[in-house]
Amino acid sequence: MTVTSTKNVVSSHPCKPETRAKIRAALRGRSTGPRSEETKAKIRATKLGHSRPDVAGARNHWWSPTGRCVTSRGRIHVRIRSNVWRAESRVIMEQALGRRLTSSELVHHINENPLDNRIENLLLVTRPEHNQIHARVRRGEQS
Ligand SMILES: [Zn+2]
Question: How far is the CA of 120 from the centre of ligand 1 (A)?
Answer without folding.
Answer: 14
